[in-house]
Structures are given as structure tokens and as C-alpha cells.
Design goal:
heterodimer, A: 7 helices, B: 104 residues, mainly alpha, 3 helices, 76% helix, elongated
């Protein structure tokens, strides 16, 4: 027990950072703080992927989550909240019920994790995965890859269509914006 | 005690539970979407952890499927936030206890 391997020493702070970020999202009263806690959570996930030897996934996580989704979420936070009410922008409800479910879920999950006899193997040396994943995408996983690309295109178009301002009735949006200012 | 599968499963379980708690308790629609992102991250972490430590795991598949998970998360974030913006235009609020109807 006294022998703490180096990778555990690396893992513990990264895992703590990730979980602390998620806890910040779950418990923060301020939506902007929650968004930046999400940044900590995603950055910690990059580290965890790195420890697991998934170098390609770590980079994808960094680019898509930290570079894309988080910026999108921050834009949504900025566009949907008035600055004056940003301090109480993230109200909570059903805390007792949610807390009960949180504890119950954790108990069940930990019961499964530590009660089940997982068939594990000692991990081999970490190899670069980018070229293997690239070949897999153009080989056995070609169809899911194409479908995913098509889905992303459809999602992008749908996002533009849903988020755009209505052009056909011009009077009402102008009135609403005047009312909000 | 060296690093093993249960460590990563523990982190994943904590992430999933915290994301679930976020989805359940937040009133702000953007915060709920943040919770969904955390849940997807927890699932991806499990895939990669089993790919590295599972005795019968296909390491390559365990590294490929999270990429699809990340794609789904990106599409979900784009469409979800577009819907949130659209709701905000119509309701001047994204409080899920105020938004009670899908039409004006």
C-alpha cells in the first residue's frame, strides 16, 4: 500500500481536477463560474485520456470540447443572461430529490464498480493511435464515419435554421427588443 | 496499489452522477446542457478505460467509439444551444420553469 506508483501520483491530481470541475458545474450558483468549471472538467478529461494512452482522443477532446463546445456554451451564456442578473443566474430546484438521487446513483455505481470482478489485463505500452484510428475510419468504420459526417452537416444546418431570427413577421421582434432594452 | 480500471470507473461514476445532478436540479437551460456534456464525457472515459484495461477489449474500437461520442456531443451542443437561443428570443427567459409551452 505504501508503494504509490508514479502513474497514480499523476492520476490523482488530474482526476481530482476533473471531478472538482464537474462539482463546480453541479453546485455553482453563477452560470459563468459553472461554464469555467466546465472548462476545468474538459481539461481534466484531456489529461485522463492522456494517462490512458489515447493521444488522438486527448487532442480531439481539446479541440472539440475546449475549443468548440465551451466557446459555444459561453456565447449562449452571454446571449441569454442580462449582466445585472448574472450573480443569481443559475438557480437550483429540487435539491433534496436531486441530492437523494445523486447519493443513490453513486452507491449503486460504486457497488457495481467494486463488487464486480472485472476481467482486466495489464496495459501494454502506449502506442500512437492516430494512424490506427485513421485507417479504421477509412476501413471497417467507413459507414458510421460517413453517417456521422452527414449528421454533423444536418445538425449544423438545423442549428442555423433554428437560431435565425424570423424574417416573415418583422414587427414583433422589433417590439420585443425594444421592450427588453 | 497501482493504477487500474476501478480508478477510472470511479472518476467516470462521479462525473456521471454530478452531470445527472446538474440536469435534475438546474433551472437554466444552458446549465442543463452543461450537465449533458459531462454525462457524455463520463461515457467516453469508460470506453477508453475499458479499451486499455479490459481483458477482452478491442483497443482500437475503444478509441474509435468515443470519437463518435464527441461528434454526437458537438451536434447536440450546436442544436441544443440554437434551440435555447430560439426559446430566449420568444420567451425572454430560459428558465425551464417559465418555459411551459413549445409554441407562443
Amino acid at each position: 500500500m505504501a508503494d504509490v506508483s508514479p502513474s497514480l501520483l499523476v492520476f490523482a491530481p488530474v482526476a481530482l481536477f476533473t471531478v472538482a470541475g464537474a462539482a463546480g458545474v453541479a453546485f455553482s450558483r453563477n452560470l459563468v463560474y459553472a461554464a469555467f468549471s466546465l472548462l476545468a472538467c474538459f481539461a481534466g478529461m484531456v489529461g485522463l485520456f492522456g494517462i490512458l494512452g489515447a493521444d488522438f482522443l486527448a487532442i480531439v477532446q481539446l479541440m472539440v470540447y475546449v475549443g468548440g463546445i465551451l466557446v459555444l456554451i459561453l456565447f449562449a451564456v452571454m446571449m441569454t443572461n442580462k449582466i445585472s442578473e448574472v450573480r443569481r443566474s443559475n438557480p437550483a430546484t429540487n435539491l433534496v430529490l436531486g441530492g437523494t438521487l445523486l447519493i443513490t446513483l453513486l452507491l449503486v455505481l460504486f457497488g457495481v464498480i467494486f463488487g464486480f470482478d472485472w476481467q482486466t489485463r495489464p496495459p501494454g505500452p502506449a502506442v500512437p493511435t492516430a494512424d490506427l484510428i485513421g485507417e479504421a475510419f477509412l476501413g471497417p468504420y467507413l459507414l458510421p464515419f460517413e453517417i456521422a459526417g452527414f449528421m454533423l452537416l444536418a445538425a449544423l444546418l438545423a442549428a442555423v435554421v433554428v437560431a435565425r431570427k424570423e424574417i416573415k413577421d418583422e414587427e414583433e421582434p422589433v417590439k420585443r427588443e425594444g421592450g427588453a432594452a | 496499489m497501482s493504477l487500474g480500471l476501478p480508478h477510472f470507473l470511479t472518476v467516470s461514476a462521479l462525473l456521471f452522477a454530478l452531470g445527472f445532478f446538474t440536469v435534475l436540479t438546474r433551472k437554466n437551460a444552458v446549465a442543463i446542457l452543461m450537465g449533458v456534456e459531462i454525462i457524455i464525457n463520463a461515457a467516453n472515459l469508460n470506453f477508453v478505460a475499458f479499451a486499455r484495461y479490459g481483458a477482452f477489449a478491442n483497443t482500437l474500437a475503444g478509441n474509435v467509439i468515443p470519437v463518435f461520442g464527441i461528434m454526437v456531443a458537438a451536434a447536440e451542443a450546436a442544436v441544443g444551444l440554437a434551440i435555447v437561443l430560439s426559446i430566449f428570443h420568444n420567451w425572454r427567459s430560459i428558465d425551464t420553469e417559465v418555459i411551459t409551452s413549445l409554441r407562443e
